[in-house]
Specification:
Elements: H1 12-23, H2 31-34, H3 62-71, H4 74-78, H5 81-95, E1 99-101, H6 108-112, E2 117-120, E3 124-127, H7 141-147, H8 149-161, E4 167-173, H9 175-184, H10 192-200, H11 202-226, E5 230-235, H12 246-264, E6 270-274, H13 281-284, E7 291-294, H14 300-306, E8 312-317, H15 319-324, H16 326-339, E9 345-349, H17 359-370
Parallel strand pairs: 1-4, 4-5, 5-6, 6-7, 7-8, 8-9
Antiparallel strand pairs: 2-3
Length: 372
Amino acid sequence: MDIFYPHNSPDILLLIQYIFYYLIKYKEPMIFLDIFSDKQIDDNKIKRAPFWFMRQAGRYLPEYRAIRQELGGFLNLCYNPKQAAEVTIQPIRRFGMDAAIIFSDILVIPHALGRKLTFGEGEGPLLDPLKEIAEVPELDEQKFLKFLEPVYEAINITRSLLPKETALIGFAGAPWTLSCYILQGKGGKDFAVARQALYEQPELVKKLIAVLTDAVALHLSAQIKAGANALQIFDSWAGLVPSTHFNQLIIEPTKKIVEFLQKNHPNIPIIGFPKGCGAFLKDYAHTGVNAMGVDMHYPLERAVLEIDEKFILQGNLDPALLAASKENCLSEAKRIKNIMQDRKHIFNLGHGIVPSTPIENVEILCKFLRGE
C-alpha cells in the first residue's frame, strides 16, 4: 500500500499516526456507501453513522497552508492534480473520516465556461459580472471538459491513493448559487444584484440557469467517471431565493441534474445541500437526491419529523462550536446522535470547518464519532 506522505518531511509523531492509520485502524467496510444501501441501521455492517466534514481540507491544517503558500494562489492549487490530491488526503491521514471530498471549488464551472475568475488574497472570488443576456456563455462540452481535466485527474489520483475503506466525494455548486457569483461578480452575503436580476432581467436569469444546469450535470458526471464514489450539490445560497422562485431556481434545475446523473450513473449516491432553505427543506426532497444536508440553523428534530425516512439526513453540528469548545462540541454531537439513533444519518457540520478550528477539537470529535 502506498503511503502518501505530507508536504515536506513529516515529524515523527505525525508519521507514526499515518502508519497507525493505514496498518491498524479503520479496517471496516466502506460504511459511507453502505448507508445508502438497503441495509438497516441495526445491521452488523452499519455499526455507526459515517462522518465527514465540509471543508475538512483547508486552512486549519498546517500541511495545507504550506502547500498553499508554495503554489502561490488558490486556483493554482485547484488546478494542480497532484497537490489537489494531496490536500484532499491530508485530513484522512490525520483524522480518518469515512469520506474524502475532492479539493476544488464550485467556481471552476463558470471559469470553464469562459468567465474570468481570480482569488485575491483576503478578497475571495472576483469575476467579471454578467450584465446582458448576450453575455450568457454557451456550453461547448468538449472545451468545458478539457478545461477541467486537472480536476478529474486529481480525482483519479486521489482514488488510487485513498484506503479502499474511504469513499471519495465529488461536488459542484448548484445553478442558482453559481448564478449569484456570476451576476454579482464577487462573493457576498445577500447578493442583491443577483436577486434584483430575477425581477429586472428574468430571461437572462432563465438562460443562465439553463446553461449552468447542463454544465453542472456534465461536470458531476465526469467526476464519477474519474473515480468519485458519491456526489454533493452545494446550493449555498438557496436561502436567498424568494418563495415565489424556489421551484424555478432550486427544485427544477436540481431535479434535472439528478435525473441526468441517475440515468447515466444509477448507483452513485447524490447529496443535496440547500443551505438556508428553511421551510423549503421538505420540498427539496422532490429533487430526487438520496440525502439532504441540514444546516445548523434548521432543527434536526424537525427534519426527522418532516422528511421521509427514505432520505438520509446529513449534518448538522455548528462549525463555530467545533472551533470554540471541545466539551460543548461533544455534548452537541451526543445530542445529534441521540436524535438520529433510529434513522440513517451522515454526521457532518452545518457548514464548512472554519480556519480557526483547533486540530485537537477535530481529533476529539472524530474519536467520539468512531466510538473510541
